[in-house]
Each structure stands twice: as structure tokens, then as C-alpha cells.
Automatic annotation (TrEMBL):
Cellular component terms per the entry's GO annotation: cell outer membrane
Region ranges (Disordered): 79-108
Assigned keywords, A-Z: Signal
Descriptive protein name: Copper resistance protein B
InterPro entries noted in UniProt: Cu-R_B_prcur
Signal peptide location: 1-17
Length: 342
């Protein structure tokens, strides 16, 4: 037993003098002297920061070479931004675009192949005339009536005739009145050239001649006539007499259909003078007016008898001139008449 103990004691100093290496050395154990920390590997240097144009201009760094441009247009090459590559062969120019008018389309008339061109020419000319190229004529007596009122019975008419086409036509207008068993009161006739200035209106110009027991002046006429919105028939004309007198007339009417044949027609007429015309009993300003209401029955479209009521009177200066010579400036009448056209 003694030799074994001696051997253990002899081996103990070597074990204490040479301790076994530690499996791991932490910072706390190294600080207390229990172990020695291994030397750490130095960290790799950080990558250099990118080089901005400002730093490159101050010599702090060098800018990386730019990638080669995909192409060098002439504008960039002129400014020194790039170098153009080798010129390539340009494609041949395109032929010039023609500007000559197209040839006319061939006119093929199927009927010519059956009846012949000579036989179809007059037929085709008549067809064109009947569909917009023909002449049109109409004579209408819009009012042919007897007026009863104020102890006097009078007659009155208002009508027109038209000859021409859709665009240009000749228009003749006539109107007047008188007393049964008495003198003819007044009358007028107009000869006008009418030209369409739109789908619904015509421009009219021509002459007007008055007839009657008093002065019979001649007028130059300029006016318009047509169909206003909501189906109002309107007419406006300016008259310049051979003595320099200027008057204006405005008329309007509306056909209110009660049935397909029974029609109620209100109408109005206003006359304005720019100066006094004493020999005709006309004063400056709004000189006269006429308001009417007529109920007609169209036995046929071309023939319609009617009954109605009419008020007519002089206004303003014209009324004063009428009273000065003892005339009544206004009059109301019951009317009966006929309207026809052909």
C-alpha cells in the first residue's frame, strides 16, 4: 500500500504544475486569471464608400467608368457625350406619294342595258325635275271676307301667288279693303323676289304699290318670311317710299288644330312708322294694329270657310290724327269668309 501512495504523491506535482487546457475561456474567466483568451482575428476592412461626382472633382476618389452607351445619336455626339459608331448604309428613299386625283367612278345605269341610253335620258331628266329640280306654283287667297260692325259692312282680302323652285321664286302679294255701297278704301300690291336663306325662312325684296282715293306711293321692300319655332307663321318687312318715308310691318299667325279639319287661327299685325305721314293719316311710332281670331273648317285642304272676330285700330299719333278729322280710331267686326288655294 505504501509504494502505491508514494507513486500517487510523486505524480501529483506534475499534474498541478500543468493544468489541463480549458475547453472555453470567457471574458469573465480571463479577467479572474482562470484562463487566457485566444487572440481575435481582425475584422475585414469595410468596403470603400461610393464615389460621388463632387468627391471625384476634389480628387478624393475615382468615378467608375460608365457603361458603354447603347447608341450615340447625332445630338449627343455633337455635345461630346459619346462617339458615334461606324455609319451604316441608309435604306433607299421611299418613292414619292402621288397626289393626282382618283379617276372618276364609272357611271353604270342598269336600265340603259335594257331600254337603251337614248330612251332613258328624257325619263331620267324628268325624274330629276320632279325630285327637287322642278317648278312650283301656288295661288292662295288666305282671307276673302265680309266684316260687319260699327254700323258698317265692309269687305277685305289678303292673298298671294308663288312661282318658282325650292330656292328662288317670284312672289306676288295683294291686300285691301273697302265698303259695300261706298268708296274703295285702300289696296296694295307687292312684286317680290324670294330666296331661301335657310330651311324655314326666305329673304324677300322688291316693290310695293299702293292704290286708293288718297296718295298712292311706291315703296322699296326688304323683308323675311317663314316658319318660326313652335310653328308660328311670321312675316316682317321694311318699306321705303319714293318720298323717303320709312315704315315697318310685322305679322304673325298660328294654326291651332282642334280636329283634323277644324282649326282655330289667332293672328296679329303691327305697323310702325319712323315719321309722320299726315296725308295718309300715319303718325310716328306704333301707328296701327290688328288682332283677329278665326275658326275655319277645311271641307278640303284647298277650301275652308270660316267665322271670326277682328279688332283694328290706330294707336298713338295716328289715333290723334284720326280724331282730328272726326274718324273713329278703332273698330271691331264679326267676319265671315272663305280661304282657298290651288
Amino acid at each position: 500500500m505504501i509504494p502505491i501512495a508514494l507513486l500517487l504523491l510523486a505524480a501529483q506535482p506534475d499534474a498541478m504544475a500543468h493544468p489541463a487546457p480549458a475547453l472555453g475561456c470567457t471574458a469573465e474567466h480571463a479577467a479572474m486569471g482562470h484562463c487566457t483568451m485566444p487572440k481575435a482575428e481582425p475584422p475585414p476592412p469595410p468596403p470603400p464608400p461610393p464615389c460621388s461626382p463632387e468627391h471625384a472633382a476634389m480628387g478624393h476618389c475615382a468615378m467608375p467608368a460608365p457603361p458603354p452607351p447603347p447608341g450615340c445619336p447625332p445630338e449627343h455626339a455633337a455635345m461630346g457625350h459619346c462617339t458615334p459608331g461606324e455609319p451604316t448604309t441608309a435604306p433607299p428613299p421611299s418613292p414619292p406619294v402621288g397626289n393626282a386625283p382618283p379617276p372618276p367612278a364609272p357611271r353604270v345605269e342598269a336600265a340603259d342595258a335594257i331600254f337603251g341610253a337614248d330612251a332613258m335620258a328624257p325619263v331620267r331628266a324628268r325624274l330629276y325635275a320632279e325630285h327637287g329640280g322642278g317648278g312650283i306654283s301656288r295661288i292662295m287667297l288666305d282671307q276673302a271676307e265680309v266684316r260687319v260692325g260699327s254700323g258698317e259692312t265692309t269687305y277685305s282680302w289678303d292673298g298671294e301667288a308663288r312661282f318658282g323652285g325650292d330656292i328662288d321664286k317670284l312672289v306676288i302679294k295683294s291686300e285691301g279693303e273697302g265698303a259695300f255701297g261706298g268708296a274703295f278704301d285702300r289696296g296694295e300690291g307687292q312684286l317680290l323676289w324670294s330666296r331661301a336663306i335657310g330651311p324655314y325662312f326666305d329673304l324677300q325684296t322688291g316693290l310695293r304699290q299702293d292704290v286708293g282715293p288718297g296718295p298712292s306711293p311706291t315703296y322699296a321692300v326688304v323683308g323675311v318670311e317663314g316658319l318660326a319655332p313652335y310653328w308660328f307663321d311670321v312675316e316682317a318687312a321694311l318699306f321705303l317710299s319714293d318720298k323717303g318715308d320709312v315704315t315697318v310691318r310685322v305679322e304673325g299667325s298660328y294654326d291651332q288644330r282642334i280636329t283634323q279639319r277644324l282649326i282655330l287661327q289667332p293672328s296679329a299685325e303691327l305697323n310702325v312708322a319712323l315719321q309722320d305721314v299726315r296725308e295718309q293719316g300715319i303718325g310716328a311710332g306704333l301707328s296701327s294694329a290688328e288682332l283677329g281670331l278665326r275658326l275655319r273648317y277645311e271641307i278640303a285642304r284647298e277650301f275652308a270657310p270660316y267665322l271670326g272676330y277682328v279688332w283694328e285700330g290706330k294707336i298713338g299719333r295716328s289715333a290723334q290724327l284720326a280724331r282730328a278729322v272726326g274718324d273713329d280710331p278703332s273698330r271691331s267686326s264679326v267676319v265671315a269668309g272663305v280661304r282657298f288655294w290651288f
